[in-house]
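pinging the channel bc i need a second pair of eyes. not urgent but kinda urgent?? the chain im working w is below, pasted from the shared doc
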Amino acid sequence: MKGKVIQFRRSRKRIHERHFILNVGTKDINEAEKFVGRQVTWKSPAGKEIKGKISSPHGNKGLVRAIFEKGLPGQARNEEVEIR
């Protein structure tokens, strides 16, 4: 299954480098809760893989938060990730 990287998880003054907000195609928070615990993989153009895990839903519109083992580069925004 595919998802899309939306943005870093951030607050007014702080950016969480390892936390990203993903769009997995769900409509509300109840559907997004089914993805909690799944593995996520982002592949770079050079072939490197950075793995992460979906930790929780984010907001009421069906987005989820994923925590990666390393931070993703800024070029990962608006790119696809693979969800297992």
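so The chain has one domain: 2-83. and The mean pLDDT is 93. — does that match what u expected or am i reading it wrong
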